[in-house]
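dumping these here so i dont lose them again. two proteins, back to back, each one seq then structure tokens. dont judge the mess
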Amino acid sequence: MTITFPIRSLSPQESRVVLTLTERGRREVAREDIIKLLSVSPESADHVIRSLRRKGWLQQASWGKYLLIPPDQGPEALGEGNLLALASRIAEPHPYYLGYGTAAAHYGLTTQHRNTIWIVTPARLRDRRLNDSDVRIVNPVPRKFFGFGPVDVLGYTVKMSDIEKTAIDCIDRPDLCGGIGEAATILAAASRRCDWSKVASYLQRIASNPLTQRCGWIADYVGAEIPDDARAQILQLASKSRKAFLGPKKAPTGAIGYDEKWHLTVNVTPAEMHGSAGLGRKQSIRKDT
């Protein structure tokens, strides 16, 4: 089977749009900008826009707004990174962040293939279909809407949860990252890169004792190396609750069971944890003598 990419040759007007945006360092453009730049009628500008979209130079972000696919990136820029930029424009100008499995994949905390982009926003927006991906909207409670900032994705700035909040969010909603076993794998990968004092402060801010207990137990399960002060703070937060569950209320056969330290009933089996036990420990390099 022959794979073809959009033709990226340009007419004089199309070239003017692309080169002007590139020289100005702009990655986004509105229909009105193109009308003004070319000094043409709206109908003529629409013709140029349609042609640039067909050739793979522009991709629609929302009605009347487009993202430029830079000349130095070529057709491959139509991949995942550009989809994140496009998806983020669905939420703007509302506050939002890309989170859960989407953020975990961006940071390299998971190897699972993602065909769903998770947008977290207080705005009541509808889910969308974007190329071959589904864009899903998550409306959080106000106390959980924090821990995010700008990141660069192929030259486009998007808002994304930081590594610490990504790991916590995935444990809070494992269904949005591939399940509890994948959430544990994500925390194991994040544990070697995250600021544990920030994790503790985030858990305190969210003020969910069961979530703190689950995070603490999973951190122990994967062997995360937590500084003593942060660990003491997380344990103190967890001690405020005496009854919490990880998994369903009814224990399956072979469930791990009750953990006294975290006051947590773990109703999942080792198989459901996807081999995440000990993944957070630093790997030592063995030298042959």
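---- next one ----
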Amino acid sequence: MKQVQKNDIVTVTLVGTLDNETVFETIDESDPLVITLGEKGVPKPIQRLLIGMQPGEMRKIRLEPEEGEFGIRRSDLLQEIPKDKFSSKIEPKVGLVLSMNVETNGITHQVPATIVELKEESIIIDYNHPLAGHPLNYEITVLDIKDKD
């Protein structure tokens, strides 16, 4: 039976959970994930895990924050913004996710940011991804393997 090798195109299903068993991602057979080993975007530990797997085989892996795609929590991604800079249409609450405009190299992007603290005159916004800083647990099942042509 064929086994996953470097540069193969692998079709998988997966379930991603946090340590408290909260599911943050589910990819099932109705819309599987297609991964080309060796390409950017797939964490290296997951690529290594897939090597040698066969169709129908399931394995589990735990990625520490620095290994995963969301990384560690960064304090430089916290920003304090005066309350008067917010629209009166927004009622700030801790946990509220906002779409904020951020300029990078002269280009404005919309990015999600979470309100993490309300102060008397300001609001603390966190631009870290909500999964940053968390170990991520994946259960991955190989459905199909194709050679990269």
